[in-house]
Structure formats: structure tokens, C-alpha cells
Amino acid sequence: MSHQRLDQLAGALAAMGADGVRLDLVQRARLFKRSWVEMANALVFVRDRSYYLDWGYEDFYAYCSTELQMRRPTVDKLTGSFVALSRHAPNVLERDGVSEKIPTCDAVDYFAKALRGEPANDGTPYVEPSDDVIAELRAAVFEEGKPVQALRRQFNPLLHPRTDARERSQVIDKAHSAVRRLTKTLGQIEGLSAARVEQVQGALLALQADLDALLAQAKQELAEEEGSDAEAAQDQAWEHVG
């Protein structure tokens, strides 16, 4: 939602006598890009006290979507990051954002996901990091204020190391997608003769079949490899129990 529409909504709510907390949330939505912490703090405040019920909403996410124009993934990122900030770096909440920098929401979200042990966006499994890695990540986020792109470059190899089988599977999958796209668009290119298009499409279809077979094989190897890793981890856990 644009700032103009949010201004209109704020005016309409004020005219109907909405309470101060409700109006404040709309105003904070306008300031979201400038200060995610303020927005996240307010969202957690409203969620934990169920204010949205008093405002006629049965669900917290319905309130956020309808009145603040925020999708659930955005709301979850904000609230999750704020909770992580409160638990693991509460001193950051005292910063003014000018003399002392506030880490970005994406950076704090990356830190929170690392603690929760979530897989990477591409599905690469999470590997339990050492205390030193977590301490280094904490410093990179809360003290150095590194952007999430830099965090991914530095810590993804430690948190989500790729095996040879996964690397091979992803390379083949990318090639497979590229061949599909080219096959679909080839006939739309002006200046190519019908004979040339037919010739190339035939070659692409043959290549796609080869890649299908290679991809199936790579995914089977990946499944076997990760299955072995899971069994080893389970055996190790039982050893600790014993």
C-alpha cells in the first residue's frame, strides 16, 4: 500500500474515533522503511495482547493484511527478528539508529534462522555450527552491522555447506531450466528459418532428455548421501544416550 493510501486510512480511522493504539500502528506502517524495529515492536505488542480482536479481526494476520497491507511472510520476519533482537541483543533496542547503527531486519532474520537451524533458501541442509561461528555471526550482525548479502557470503559455507552431490544436482537443474526456457522462446525469435528452429529444437529436446536422466541420477545420489548423513547423526545421538 502506498503512503498516500495509508494517510487516507489513518484519516478515516481518526474520523471514526479509532483508539490511539490502532492509529499508531497505521502511522508506524508509514515509517516502516525507516525504522523496522519500531514497526516490529508494535506488531509484537498488538499480537501478544490480541488488540486485533477488539478491532473486529479474528486473526492477527488478517488484521496485518487488511489494515497494514503487510503479507504474512513480512509480518513473520518482523516479529521473529524483533524477538531474536530482544533475546540475544537487547542493547541494540536502545540505539537511536543515528549515532549507533541498527542492523537491518534481513540481517537479524538471518541470525534468527541460524539459531533455529533452518535450511538455506535453495534447500541446502543446515549444519550445527560451533559456538565460535555463532559468536562470529552475532558480532557481524549486531556489532559490525553487515548486510545480509555479506552474511550469506561469509556464513552460508559454514551453516549450509554443499556436498558434491547437491552441487552437481543444482548445476544440472539450472541447465535443465535454461534449456526449457530456450525451447519455449526459440520460435518467437524473428529472422530464424523454420528449418533452423526445427533443427535446434530437436537438439534441445534431446539435450533435455539427457539432462532429465542426469538429474534423476543426481537426485538419487543426493538422497542416498543425505540419508546416510541422517543415519549417522541418529547413531551418534544414540551413542550419547547410551
Give an account of the 3D structure.
This protein has helices at 3-15, 20-30, 36-49, 51-54, 60-67, 72-88, 105-116, 131-143, 148-159, 164-185, 194-241. It is mainly alpha-helical and 242 residues long. It folds into three domains: 3-77, no CATH class; 103-159, no CATH class; 164-241. It is extended, with a radius of gyration of 25 Å.
Write the SSE topology.
Blueprint (H helix, E strand, L loop, with lengths): L2 H13 L4 H11 L5 H14 L1 H4 L5 H8 L4 H17 L16 H12 L14 H13 L4 H12 L4 H22 L8 H48 L1
SSE pattern: HHHHHHHHHHH
List segments where confidence is low: pLDDT < 50 over at least 5 consecutive residues.
228-242
Number of helices: 11
Task: State the secondary-structure class.
Answer: mainly alpha
Q: Report the helical percentage.
A: over 70%
Give the overall average pLDDT: 82
Task: Give the biggest sheet.
Answer: none
- Strand composition percent: under 5%
Shape: extended
Count of individual beta strands: 0
How many domains? The number is 3
Query: What is the gyration radius calculated from CA atoms?
Result: 25 Å
* Distance separating the two termini: 57 Å
